[in-house]
Each structure stands twice: as structure tokens, then as C-alpha cells.
Specification:
- It contains twelve helices and eleven strands.
- The protein is α/β, with parallel strands linked by helices and about 350 residues long.
- It has two domains: about 160 residues, 3-Layer(aba) Sandwich (D-Maltodextrin-Binding Protein, domain 2); about 150 residues, D-Maltodextrin-Binding Protein, domain 2 (3-Layer(aba) Sandwich), CATH 3.40.190.
- Strand 1, helix 2 and strand 2 form a beta-alpha-beta unit.
- Helix 4 runs antiparallel to helix 10.
- It starts with a helix and ends with a helix.
Amino acid sequence: MFKLLFISIKLTLVLSAFLLLGQTNLLKAAEINLRMHSFIPPVANPAKTWLIPWAKKINKESGGRINIKPFWKMQLGGAPQSLMNQARDGVVDIVWTLPGFTTGRMPRAEIFELPFLHKNALSTTLALQDYKDKHLSNETAPWHVLLMHAHGGVLFMTKTPITKMSDLKGMKMRGANRTSVLLLQALGADGIATPLGRVPPMMSKGVINGVLLPYEIAPAVKMHELGKYFTELAAPAPRLNTAVFTLLMNKKSYAKLPSDLKKILDNNSGRNVAEAAGKNWDALEPRGKGVMKSKKKNKFSTLSATESDKIRKVSQSVYNLVIKELKNKHNVNNGQELIDDARAMIAKYSK
């Protein structure tokens, strides 16, 4: 009788210890909860190959003490253009977004989105780290910057073929940022800036005839179904342009972290992950192109060197306009220096 009672008490104590341990682990896992907000769906390549693995890596390295919870497709409210403000104001802790969604938000960073500057995601992303340190301290001051990076260069994805520059005249084309819209306008197209999520209905209804996109994000907006012609520039020209992306954190959310957890986040930020990010986005390009090729209707072509050079020459007007606007609208008087620095920094990492 007493022996059975003793065993029962022992089992109860062991069970209680396990329950207590489990509760302790749960509390430990929930020590720091960070909400990460973005405009893309979880099935999009940037989510699957970078944001989700990045959050899991930090959770693992922190022993479960940091939990980054992603919220997709603006689940927490607002428009894509409001994401930077949400991180700045503490509505959320982290956002992944494009400064280009809001014209003039980071005018110096916009330099990297100019035509014929970008070569690949790796060299541009590495160059952005140097450029940020030298030129973007004021523009990035409202946030704790976790990463600035670029995706693969864009190409023409259209419903009608583009075999020469003049084919773009009169086309209604979506661009991701201001510089791409300016380029489209310089080429005679009707450039339209609109969030990524609006591309499918606009394409299907004929509101736009095509888009400037990289291959990596094209599957997320069903361009393999909605487009038909995919046109690149002649090699070895740099890609037409790119977009600057930011992974931004609320400064107070970062400041409240204990020093050891700050170190884990730092180890997974900026220069420490820039190479991995660049390689990730470069690797996504052929995979995205493979999806576009999965539809037999789709046609792929490359503009001749002559036609590509025509586009390059026209793009100079975009450079001139951006330099002028930097001076007149933002009191930035060294626009050409910024361009020269960006080009040299990209060249440094392209060797």
C-alpha cells in the first residue's frame, strides 16, 4: 500500500516537473515576439526562400527566445505604401518593402534603380551596403536597418511582341518604381506605377499591356499565364533596372532587446547576410524563368545590340531628370557623384 502510494507520488512529481519544464520552454519561446509585415503572399519566392528561412534561423540561434511572426499580403492593415511608416511608428516591428512605393522617401537610394546600372543581385546588394554607409545615414535614420538589397534586373513581359524599341510606343506598362516609370515614358510607353498585387487584374482586363519585372517574382503574379512575350536586352548589357528593397525594424523594438539577442540579430543583418541575399535572388531568376517557360504559348527573345543601345541612349534622359529632381526637390546637389559612386561600387563587386 505504502509502496504504491510512494510510486504514485513519485510519478506525480516527475509529471509535474515535465509540465513545469514545458511551461518554462513556452515562456522562453515567447520572450521576444516580433511582428513582420509585408505585401507579398507566403508562396512568393522572396517569402519562401528568404524571409521565412531568415526568421526561422534567428529563432533557432536565439534558442527560441526570438519569435518573428510573419504577416503576409497586408494582413495587419494599410496599403503597401504605408509599410515604412508602420515600422517607423511601431505599428509593427519589422517590414519588408520597397522605398520606391513612396516617391521621394529615399531619393538617394533611388540611384540604384536607374537604367543600365544594375548587373546582378549579388553585386548590387553588396554595393548597397557600402552606399548605405556613405550616403544614406539620414534617409535611413528613422529605422534600424536590417538589410538593403536588390532583386534580379527587370525585363519586358508583354501580351504583344517587342522586337525593337519603337514597339513600346503607346503601350501601357506597369513599373515597380519611379525610375522604371520614367524610363517607360522616355521610351514612348504609358508608364504606370502600381503595387504588385494589382498586376493580375490589370493584365487580365487589358488595363495594361505588360510589365517590367524580374523572373523571380513573375510566378507570384501569374505572368506565365497572363503574358506571352518575354524580352531581354542584348548581352553583355547590364539589366534594364532593378528595385531597392529594405528590411526595416522599429528602432524601439530593436533597442529593447537584451545585448545577446541584439548580437544574434546583428549577425543576421547587413553585411553579414548581404552576400547570401544577393546569391539567393540571383538563383531565383532561372527558377522563375523556368515557370514562365512552362507554358508553350510563351515566347522568349532578346533585343538586338542595336535596339538595346537605342534604349540605353534614351535612358540618359532619366539620369538627367533624376539629378535635376534631387537638386530641386530634395536639396541634393551631388547627384552625379552619387551615380558615379553607385556605378563604381557595383563594378567593385562585379569583378
